[in-house]
Design goal:
With about 550 residues, the protein is α+β, with helices and mostly antiparallel strands. The protein is about 25% helix and about 30% strand. The chain contains 13 helices and 26 strands. The relative contact order is 0.12.
């Protein structure tokens, strides 16, 4: 590994000195998902204890592709600018069949977005930046390395965890426990929970190599390339002159044999030619498309790979985990502050199981196209690839991994029905779209940076009546005069009107996770209050 791993020391917790802790939220696993959850909770004023049995960030680049929606979430958490500065930005993908390019695609063809379609950045950098960010909240985030969860006792009002450290065991009480401890989740094992779904037979080799090369910042995918006959291959560029290469091996491949450097090197040389390179990291994996039946088990909640796993093609694993956090943190915070009914946590199950199922479906379809299991599937793939070169409709049939997109939450329980007559724009359950704005000081900025972790009424043309304490942002066509105390922004390039379909006097109610909760043609404070109560599970109160 060329990355210099910092070792984080064990710090003796007060629990070992006879001062037991009760945490509002106990998080197990300090990967990107667990760290992001701790930061998100801290931004909402909720304390957490974060346990990890290791003492450093991830070994190997692991997750590398971070989508625009995930970057928008990371922006709210305060780490996106650092990620984008370090990462490799890309938006173009090229698809090859044998030695010919079939077609290419642009993942962000329109202007007016703060963040790129994707960046490539090794997981260890993401964890490093999140740990640095967590250090900004010493009173709210208690990050405990070399602390291994070994047992759990559950009760109606919380959990008690048994924690093993280099200096002894202690017991830690918490109102909620969130398992962010990955595919081999200790928490899932302690609760005796298993995954449902499919494990595919095909094996794939992931290799990160360090080399000087002039490959562009694009996603290149091959079906049956001449350098790896009959199989598939993927090439991605990462920071620090590191390249990710994925190679299909077939179901009979022996993982131990295939990951030996002396066997990996000839495969890489066949791709990159005679230029010098160094092997940085090697892993062999099988496709899995599985999840827990439920993500919420009393006061224990699962997020990220502890809850669901998919194949790497499509970048839906890490991005899906961060979107779990985006959905969960505000709900846990609202419950912890007695602002919401505890029943709100059930909607995490409802909404993120939809997201997981969407990711699993796309991942399974990718697997079937990439590794045909029958003669008919193979014929279909050959014909789709042949037509895609000249027929745009056929390109939708070619599947090298449907890349991560945010999940729509339409027609689920937290969304309110539209006022009659609201046409166009973003339907309830949609994630908000970014757009350039001009603030009252005349500075260009971004709409999503004004929607930061709380309920917000987005009104158009002029302010509307809102319930006491609810923030409002009004989009206007002319200068953003805020002299009367109402916050206004100017639609800098007309893209807010285009994307939101906002007519004068209309309004959106936006959730704390930047999703649309309701839309109103004729908003009133009473209508908005009712929609908020629906979101928080307080309708019957």
């Amino acid at each position: 590994m060329r990355y210099q791993h910092q070792r984080f020391p064990f710090v003796r917790p007060p629990d070992l000195n006879g001062r037991p802790t009760r945490a509002p939220v106990l998080i197990v696993g300090a990967g990107p998902v667990g760290l992001a959850l701790a930061v998100d909770l801290a931004l909402r004023g909720v304390k957490s204890v974060l346990l990890d049995d290791g003492d450093t960030v991830s070994v190997g680049s692991r997750a590398i592709c971070w989508s625009k929606r995930t970057l928008e979430i990371f922006d709210r958490l305060g780490v996106a600018s650092r990620m984008v500065a370090k990462g490799v930005t890309w938006r173009v993908g090229r698809l090859f069949h044998r030695d010919k390019e079939v077609y290419n695609f642009d993942l962000l063809p329109e202007p007016g977005h703060k963040h790129p379609a994707f960046i490539n950045l090794q997981q260890y950098y993401v964890e490093e930046y999140l740990i640095d960010r967590a250090r900004d909240f010493p009173e709210l985030i208690d990050l405990r390395f070399k602390s291994k969860l070994v047992d759990i006792e559950r009760a109606n009002d919380g959990v008690t965890a048994d924690v093993e450290t280099p200096e002894g065991h202690y017991r830690l009480e918490a109102d909620w426990l969130v398992a962010c401890d990955g595919v081999r989740s200790t928490v899932r094992g302690l609760l005796g929970l298993g995954f449902v779904g499919r494990t595919f037979e095909e094996r794939f080799l992931i290799t990160d190599i360090k080399m000087k090369a002039d490959f562009p910042s694009e996603r290149w995918f091959w079906f049956e390339p001449p350098f790896h006959s009959g199989q598939s291959a993927l090439l991605h560029k990462q920071p620090d002159d590191v390249y990710r290469i994925d190679l299909q091996l077939g179901p009979e491949a022996d993982p131990e044999v295939e990951r030996r450097p002396e066997n990996v090197r000839p495969r890489i040389e066949a791709i990159v030619g005679d230029r010098p390179f160094e092997i940085d990291w090697i892993s062999v994996y099988t496709f899995q498309c599985r999840r827990l039946e439920r993500f919420v088990h009393g006061r224990v909640v699962f997020a990220g790979d502890s809850a669901h796993i998919v194949s790497p093609f499509g970048a839906r694993g890490g991005n899906g985990g961060i979107q779990d956090v985006d959905n969960l943190a505000w709900k846990l915070a609202a419950i912890a502050k007695s602002e919401a009914s505890e029943s709100l946590i059930a909607t995490y199950d409802e909404e993120r199981i939809r997201g997981a199922d969407e990711n699993i479906l796309n991942s399974a379809r990718s697997t079937s196209f990439m590794t045909p299991k029958s003669q008919m599937e193979r014929i279909f793939r050959e014909e789709a690839l042949a037509m895609a070169a000249t027929e745009p409709f056929a390109r939708r049939l070619v599947n090298s991994g449907r890349l991560s997109l945010p999940c729509l939450l339409d027609r689920l329980s937290l969304q309110s029905e539209d006022d009659p007559g609201f046409l166009g724009g973003l339907a309830p359950g949609s994630p908000c779209l970014d757009a350039p704005i001009i603030d009252n000081l005349g500075n260009r900025a971004w709409l999503l940076n004004e929607i930061l972790g709380h309920f917000l009424v987005l009104s158009f043309g002029h302010p509307v009546d809102v319930p006491h304490g609810v923030a409002q942002l009004t989009v206007v066509d002319g200068p953003a005069d805020c002299a009367d105390g109402h916050t206004r922004v100017q639609d800098a390039d007309g893209l807010i009107a285009q994307r939101y379909g906002g007519i004068p006097g209309a309004a959106y109610l936006l959730r704390p996770d930047q999703h649309v909760a309701a839309r109103f043609v004729k908003p009133t404070a009473e209508k908005i209050a009712t929609a908020i109560e629906r979101v928080l599970g307080l309708e019957a109160a």
